[in-house]
Amino acid sequence: MNLIEIAQDTFKIEADALLKAAKLLDKKFLNAIDIILNTKGKLIITGVGKSGLVGAKMAATFASTGTSSFFLHPTEALHGDLGMVGKEDTLLAISSSGESEELTKILPHIKRFNIPLIGLTGNPDSSLGKYADVYLDISVEKEACPLGVAPTTSTTLTMALGDALAVALMKHRGFKEQDFASFHPGGALGKRLFMKIKDLMKTQSLPIISTKSTLKEAVVVMSEGKLGTVLIVDENKHFTALLSDGDLRRALMKEDFSLDNFAIDHATKKPKIYHNTELLASEALEIIENERIQLLPLIKENGEIIGVLHIHDLINAGIKYK
User: Fold this and answer.
1) Per-residue pLDDT of the chain (322 residues; tens, 9 = 90+)
2) Which pTM was predicted?
3) Multiple choice CATH, 3-175, 3.10.450.50, 3.40.50.10490, 3.40.50.620, 3.40.190.10
């Protein structure tokens, strides 16, 4: 038994079914798109068993790509959840046979609401096929399952058809990257497009010393601050310089080194700073990496310190840039 060949045959059977279905797409697909586009309420997906699992995935895909949607289990619908269906909604029902008992029981009630019904089934003469305002064919010549009974090719085709509907709707609506990110604020894309410096910067207990502070005092504050850096301010509390652990190591190499030396004498006098805390965190990361620094001070135009942004804060938040 060659398991690799069995796996390859599975791919081929399902791929062939997808290609065949793609060629058979017709006006019914466009009618389904029109119904969804004209839906003022929500697109409700329903189905039983494997069709229900595919339907739940489809609802999630629609919801995250600009089509307000949720999954409704037919059994729960029969026991009160039909109240979730509104007069401005559309129902998309999935059943390969079109005769799933739990599903067919709710169809008369759905039609009573006089809302559009899109049916995904392999049998246009089934109960679902007859009730549906638009019928989309999910029939397949054979399942990839060697027994021909486990839903494999049919579920793949159904999921692909759901994806095709979602992508077509996205294109028609001009759904952009920013729109997708707004539905995924916790994802990498959402963070890159929406999270700002002000959301991540540190503003409390900053490691700050004065221009009169010694290296010994700087070492203590640097250790307590745990940022590998201290900020140096003048008598007016205006940012003047930055002493990093790298500056400290270079100071140690000098013959006249003394912990009693002023920290300002070994500090970086014109470090990279930024004034705009509304800058995207992803852009701040690009600045930090391009400048090869670890810490970006945020300073007001008058020199007062607003806060600091450390590269570790960006990395821990999962911030990336293109």
Assistant:
1) 688 999 999 999 999 999 999 999 999 999 999 999 999 999 999 999 999 999 999 998 898 888 888 999 998 887 778 888 888 999 999 999 999 988 999 898 888 888 999 999 999 999 999 999 999 999 998 898 888 778 899 999 999 999 999 999 988 888 666 555 555 444 444 455 567 788 888 999 899 999 999 999 989 999 998 888 999 999 999 999 999 888 888 988 888 888 888 999 999 888 888 888 887 777 888 888 888 888 889 999 998 999 998 888 877 777 765 5
2) 0.63
3) 3.40.50.10490
268 burial via Cβ count (<10 Å: 0-12, 13-18, 19+)? middle
Cα–Cα dist 211/234, whole Å = 6
Same fold, 3-175 and 197-316: no
Six-digit token string for 32? 């389904």
